[in-house]
Amino acid sequence: MTSNDFLLPYWSPTEIATNAVILLHLAGALFLGLLVGYERSYHGRAAGMRTYGLVCMASCALTIISGYPEMWFGGQTAAIGTVDPTRVMQGVVTGIGFLGAGVIMRDGFNISGLTTAASIWSSSVIGILVGVGFYLAAMGLAFFSAMIMIYLNRVEAVLPSRRAVAVMLRFHEDYLPREEALRAAALERGYQIAGSSLTISSSDRRQEWRFVAIALSRHNRATLTELAAELAATEGVEGFQLSHARN
């Protein structure tokens, strides 16, 4: 038996048709994941379109291939023997999940690494698709994932959204700020303090306030440099930290 005899079943018409069905499902799952992710991104949440799109699409890939066990390994299911591939898949996905969790970092209200973790998990599913012989579907998932990572942030940049800014304010000794005045000042500059995001701590008779400010619109808002200049001249503020809440 030649090498072609081993490879031809992986590219048979039936196998290609199955891969095409999988690709259609991946495209649908990607669209719906992006839709949900845009809602989160619009409201300034950490996990945005890229994270939701990758996770939804990769989850769809894992689910749909379980519906075609007779097509695994080019339809040569007899070669599997007594080994259960689904248990191997479960082990891979679980292990990669722990690996992905290791790249997620949190610094105050900033969370970074979510998209990286999702892309790592998605790449493991690409490997599974290749392993069971769905080459065309694997290439499609790899292409979609790469497009998400390369171009989707540009799409997000032009879509209407409400940018989030993580703010830390440290006040002078014995200075007592008022929440109402803080919220009014934020509104004047085009921001709204996110509900339940305000945390207050105190040490050495100095209060430190941390919160997330959500921009009311893309254009009518103060920039970080403008906010920094105002805070530097604000009475009672001893120190501050501003950063874009990111994922």
Short note summarizing the structure:
This protein is an alpha+beta fold and 247 residues long. The chain has eight helices and seven strands.
Keywords:
single chain; 247 residues; alpha+beta; Alpha-Beta Plaits; 2 domains; five-stranded antiparallel beta sheet; two-stranded antiparallel ribbon; 16% strand
Task: Spell out the blueprint of helices and strands.
Layout: H1 3-7, H2 13-42, H3 49-65, H4 85-101, E1 105-107, E2 110-112, H5 114-132, H6 135-158, E3 164-171, H7 179-188, E4 191-193, E5 199-203, E6 206-215, H8 224-232, E7 237-244
Antiparallel strand pairs: 1-2, 3-6, 3-7, 4-6, 5-6
Structure explained in plain terms:
This protein is α+β, with helices and mostly antiparallel strands and 247 residues long. The protein folds into two domains: 3-158, no CATH class; 164-244, 2-Layer Sandwich (Alpha-Beta Plaits), CATH 3.30.70. 53% of the residues lie in helices and 16% in strands. The chain contains eight helices and seven strands. The strands form two sheets. Strands 3, 4, 5, 6 and 7 form a five-stranded antiparallel sheet that branches. The chain has a two-stranded antiparallel sheet with strand order 1-2.
Q: Please count the beta strands (DSSP E, at least 2 residues each).
A: 7
What are the low-pLDDT stretches, counting only 5+ consecutive residues below 50?
Answer: none
Helix and strand sequence: HHHHEEHHEHEEEHE
Work out the count of structural domains.
2
The biggest beta sheet reads:
5 strands, antiparallel
Our Rg estimate from Cα atoms comes to 25 Å
- What percent of residues adopt helix (DSSP H or I)? 40-55%
Mean pLDDT: 80
Number of helices: 8
**What percent strand?**
15-25%
Broad shape: elongated
> What class, by secondary structure content?
alpha+beta
Head-to-tail CA distance between termini: 52 Å
